[in-house]
Structure prediction request, 439 residues.
Amino acid sequence: MSYFDNVPVVKFEGRDSKNPFAFKYYDPKRVILGKTMEEHLPFAMAWWHNMCANGVDMFGVGTADKSFGCVPGTMEHARAKVDAGIEFMSKLGIKYFCFHDVDIVPEDPDDINETNRRLDEITDYILEKTKGTDIRCLWTTCNMFGNPRYMNGAGSSNSADVFCFAAAQAKKGIENAVKLGAKAYVFWGGREGYETLLNTDMKLEEENIAKLFTLCRDYGRKIGFTGDFYVEPKPKEPMKHQYDFDAATAIGFLRKYGLEKDFKMNIEANHATLAGHTLQHELRVCAVNDMMGSVDANQGAMLLGWDTDQFPTNVYDTTLAMYEILKAGGLRGGFNFDSKCRRPSNTFEDMFYSYIAGMDTLALGLIKAAEIIEDGRIDSFVKERYSSWETGVGAKIRSGEFTLEDCAAYAAELKKPENPGSGRQEYLENIVNNVLFHS
Ligand code: XUL
Ligand code: CO
Prediction:
């Protein structure tokens, strides 16, 4: 059974191609800075958006048919989604997928044992269907925000019983990561936050989230999970405030509880912008803290204050993101398209156009970021800008040789420092444009 007969296998045809089912920039075998594009860009399909989401929103029902010829909510449907997902990834040359537990099977609302049995059945089926292919799981996660039991949070719930259900789901999620050979297990704290502090014990909630992470880390290592645990920061939505506000907050939290060795960040572009940051900023924070894990690739609508999960098409943003990633030596994980087609883009063809757009935009970002690095003007400007720290007083302060009194005595002798020099922002921004639009 095939589902996408009217879409050919998508290949690289170059920038002059007008074929909508061809890559214009993503050329998997092209070598950039010593690695192929497919090595730089381990793309992943997000099961929830691509195989499940049908365009339903707060104002209307779905517009896309994701039944794949089956009755939704059945195991037959779950299997059809595996078949369709693998066909989709194969046609695009996508090697990885990511899922929440309840994306791949319908949850039994009354018995977690039955849900787990279904997970065993479908993960067996995924293994069977991917055998002999190079398609693998990038990361697993659990939906610990949709079911009404999580209305007050999962790890942060006021209810110890609910905490145990979150723990049970995460345990299965980690077991599935091991079973499928995934690189990571993700925690996105969907409802780990608060609506009002008037009813919230923040200290207890944060300690309990750390407890859940610690229990999962210890169990994962015990059963032979060698991958990373990721935290995916997001400042708000669905909660008014979420504890994993941004990368800096999440990293500080992990360090407080001694989890920083086993955990890394999964940075989502639209979550960065919701936190009032750029994706580039979040990636830089990860890079300087040795926390660069994976990316949830998407973009937001800058005039809206919520998570629109659009496919990334802004080359300026992907260029600066890839610049950070290249300079940090690459991602440990990959680029998961946590992106969905717009509600009116409701056909199977749109799913392909969207992925082609996202993959080409990241590929262009990679090409241009490498050009910025090879051009060298920006890097050499930054090096020169901080050169006072390399020798003399700067070097002595950095090495610990200079006390506060030494600094003060030096200043007293100098009487007045020289002008620290222009930041040259516009000059640098023009270099980026020069590289981007070099004809
Ligand atoms: C929600 C979000 C999630 C996580 C996985 O904004 O990004 O889909 O990526 O739970
Ligand atoms: Co995400």
